[in-house]
Write a structure and sequence with these properties.
The chain is an alpha+beta fold. Helices cover 43% and strands 11% of the residues. Strand 3 and strand 4 form a beta hairpin. The chain starts with 13 loop residues before the first helix and ends in an 8-residue tail after the last helix.
């Protein structure tokens, strides 16, 4: 089992960290106290350090605050308790069933692209359909760990072939901004700052016919149109598993579906 890595919290007490999570969720002490069925006075004492919370209290507050498992472990450590959730590598025997299930999920949509990502948008696994999207990207951007947001928006990555780059860029940056704000993860905040510096233009208004934010991608002389769907593993009890997400790209029109099927059968895209 790998050692659970947690955000740096040595400089802050468990009470301070709980207060930060409460404020991040935009809850008053009274709101959280009512949800967690404790007194507001007790919660105030916990946040100010006048009362040391039990491990059960930390877990209860974490649940009501929607704190990710990695950060729940950090709260427990700050409170002087052992972490509650293990963190196994995906290649370890304990996650064999998860690996098999992820492979089934990835293979299911083929020839449509699908990827497995971790908390920091790093590529964990992918099906063969992803190669169509990454063709032409600079080799350095494809070296592990591959960050799919950097790969998508970097001028040497997929960006030159994204037809609606400004719209897609705005969509990804908005998702990343919300994630960074909801988790307080400095790595995500730093990634957002980096991506803001990439060229891409101002956000475009979606076309009237679009029901989801599309990805319009140039492949040879063909224009491919996708929409994405994200799935997570339900009821995770392991940090690694809790941080995985499956992003699948489905054709938004018949022409894209036909082109992907043709490519999977060994066909070649129309050349420039």
């Amino acid at each position: 089992m790998t050692v659970t890595s947690a955000p740096l919290t040595a400089s802050r007490s468990v009470g301070q960290l709980l207060r930060e999570w409460r404020q991040r969720r935009r809850l008053s002490q009274l709101d959280l106290a009512i949800e967690a069925e404790i007194s507001a006075r007790h919660l105030s004492f916990v946040e100010t350090g006048r009362s040391r919370p039990t491990s059960d209290m930390i877990m209860r507050l974490s649940e009501h605050l929607g704190v990710p498992l990695r950060d729940r472990n950090a709260l427990l450590l700050a409170g002087g308790y052992a972490p509650a959730y293990p963190e196994h590598g995906l290649d370890e025997p304990e996650l064999a069933a998860v690996r098999a299930a992820l492979r089934q999920v990835l293979d299911g949509p083929f020839p449509y692209p699908a990827v497995v990502l971790n908390r920091w948008w790093e590529l964990v696994d992918a099906n063969a359909g992803v190669g169509l999207l990454t063709a032409g990207a600079a080799p350095r951007l494809l070296e592990p760990p591959v960050n799919v947001l950097r790969l998508s928006l970097h001028p040497d990555g997929m960006a030159p072939r994204i037809i609606n780059l400004a719209q897609w860029r705005a969509h990804l940056l908005s998702r990343l901004s919300r994630q960074a704000a909801s988790t307080g993860d400095t790595r995500l905040a730093e990634l957002h700052e980096e991506l803001l510096g990439y060229p891409g233009g101002q956000a475009e208004s979606p076309a009237a016919a679009d029901v989801v934010a599309p990805l319009r991608y140039r492949h040879g002389r063909q224009e491919l149109s996708f929409f994405s769907m994200t799935a997570v593993i339900g009821t995770p009890m392991d940090v690694t598993v809790a941080e995985l997400a499956i992003e699948s790209f489905y054709p938004a029109d018949d022409a894209t579906a036909a082109a992907l099927s043709h490519a999977a059968a060994g066909g070649r895209p129309a050349s420039d």
